[in-house]
Protein: Mannitol-1-phosphate 5-dehydrogenase
Organism: Tigheibacillus jepli
Amino acid sequence: MEAVHFGAGNIGRGFIGALLNQANYHTTFVDVNDTVIKEINNKQQYDVILADEKQEKLTVNHIAGINSVTNPEAVVDAIVKADIITTAVGPNILAIISELIARGLRKRLEANPQPVNIIACENMVGGSSLLKEKVYEHLSQDEQAAFSERFAFPNAAVDRIVPNQTNEDLLTVSVEPYFEWVVEKSAMKGTIPDIPGITYVDDLKPYIERKLFTVNTGHTVPAYIGHFLGYETINDAMKDEHVQSVIAGALHESGEALIRTYGFERSKHEAYVEKIIQRFKNPYISDEVTRVGRGPIRKLGPDDRLIRPAKMFMETTDKEPENLGKVIAAVLRYVNPADEEAVKLQEMIADKGIEKTLQDVSKLAAGDPLISVILREKEELENLRK
Ligand SMILES: NC(=O)c1ccc[n+]([C@@H]2O[C@H](COP(=O)([O-])OP(=O)(O)OC[C@H]3O[C@@H](n4cnc5c(N)ncnc54)[C@H](O)[C@@H]3O)[C@@H](O)[C@H]2O)c1
Ligand SMILES: O=P(O)(O)OC[C@@H](O)[C@@H](O)[C@H](O)[C@H](O)CO
C-alpha cells in the first residue's frame, strides 16, 4: 500500500508517518525542506521516541522523500499511485500545495481508476474541506464533477503533542505517547483504509471542536499568559499559579460551551480536561511557548480556539468569558520578532488600534460585547505580574 504525505515535520514524521508505517504502508514524504528530504532518502528510516519514563523507540521504515520544489513531477506520479494522501503542513500552507495536488489528481483520473481519500491533518475545523476548495479553484467545472466522483476529502482531527525537535539525529522525533486521529468516515470514497489508531466517525464536528477547544484552547494559556509572565516552556509555565487559575477558568468556559452545544457527559468531559492538563505537564517533553503560540493571527480567527469558544460560551450561558478574554488579551500583547504573524499583529494594532484589529482578524462586529470583555481583561492582565 502506498501513502503520500505532505509535510515531513513534527506531526508528519512523529505521528502520521508512524501510524502509516505500523499499518504497513510505504510512505512518500513531500516537503520543501531539502535537507530533511535528502536525509529521508539517505537513511530510509527514522526513530520515533515515546516521551515518558520508558523512552520506547519505534523505527519507521519503508519511506522515501520528494522535494516538491525541485521535483514536482515525481509528486504528481506518486499521487497517481497513492492509496491514501495526507497532509500536516499547517492551515496556511494548504492553499500552496493545492495546485500540485490538483495536477496529481488530474493525471490520476486518466491513469488509475481507484478512488482516493485526501486527509488534511491540521489544527482547524474543516481542514480537508478547505484543501478541497483550494484544489477545485485549479479545475474546470467538468474536472470538478469528475473529481467529485472519484476523490474524497474527509475532515479529520489529530491530537499528539510533538514539540520542536532538538535530537542530534535530524530525523529522530520525540513525541508524547498519547494520540488521537479521528476521520469523517461518511465523507470517504472506496475502501476505508485499515490504519490501526484511526477512529472513524460519521460526524466529525463534535470531535474536532472538542479537541480544538480543549487541547488547543488550553494550550494557549501556558503559551500566551506564560510568555507574558516570562516563561519559555510550557511545563515551566504550567507551574505558575496564575497560569493554573486561567487555564482552569478558560477550560471551564470552553467546556461549558461544548457540553451545552453537543451534550457531552459532564464527568467524562472533566476527565478529558484533567488528562490534557497532565499532558501539558509531561516532564519528558520540553515544548517552547513560542511553538505553541505560533501564528497568533490564525489563532485569533473567528472559528479558531479562542474566539469561537468565547462566542459559544456567551451564546449558551449568557455570561462573560473572562478567562478566554484574558488569553485573547495576552495574544494581543504577544511580541515575538521571530514570528511573522506576531510582528504583523503588532503592526495592525499600532496602525488601527485593538478594536479595529479584532474586527478584521476575528470578524467581530463593531460593538460586539466580546470586544468589551477583551479590553477589560487587557487591563486586568497587568495584575498577573504583581
Ligand atoms: N506539533 C503538534 O503538536 C501538532 C499536533 C497536532 C496537529 N498539529 C498540526 O499539524 C500541522 C503541522 O504541524 P507541525 O507541528 O508538524 O509543523 P512543522 O513545522 O514541524 O511541519 C510542517 C512541515 O511542512 C513543511 N512544508 C511547508 N510548506 C510546505 C509545502 N509547500 N509543501 C510541502 N511541505 C511544506 C515544512 O517544511 C515542515 O516540514 C499543523 O496544522 C499543526 O497545527 C501539530
Ligand atoms: O499547531 P498549532 O499552531 O495550531 O497549535 C499549537 C499547539 O497547540 C498544537 O500543535 C498542539 O501541540 C497539538 O494540537 C496537540 O495535539
About this structure: The mean pLDDT is 97. Residues 6-12, 30-33, 68, 88-91, 93, 96-97, 121-123, 158-162 surround nicotinamide-adenine-dinucleotide (ligand 1) (CB under 6 Å).
